[in-house]
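User: I'm new to structure prediction. If I give you an amino acid sequence, what do you actually give back? Let's try with this one:
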Amino acid sequence: MMEGEVIPMDKPKRLAPMKTIHEIELPEKSKAIPTGKPKRLAPLKTIYDLGYQEGSHQEASLPPALVPMEPAVASQEPVKAPAYVVTADGSPVASLGSMAEALEALAAVVRSTPSRPGHTVRIEIRDAAGKPLRICYLPRGRG
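Assistant: Good question. You get back a string of structure tokens that encode the predicted 3D arrangement of the chain. For your 143 residues, that looks like this:
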């Protein structure tokens, strides 16, 4: 390139003017406008309708509409699948039901893992689907 040489540039494209809310055409709805009386919806149930009492730690019993009807299903005990799995280098170390338990197990695994020079141990908490969780630790006084 020589000094003072003019480089040809394309002109910027002109944009279409913005439309106002009144100029926008909405697609036609396929359903006809309902006529007649609207259907009355059942009132929403509150936690107090379901048996919750202030200050009690008892589990509320299910209303009759929510109780399973099949006797085969009702007789089985609910299967508690682990919600969180603590892994060290990909192999499961502990299966736990709550995040608090998983964090305690994570700390115990970190404390009990011996240090080996040149080897980094990857300790993770994974959810029920096996996806690793991202955990952020902020020391006190920061954040």
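You can read the tokens as a compact description of the fold. Here is one thing that stands out. Strands lie at 84-88, 91-96, 123-127.
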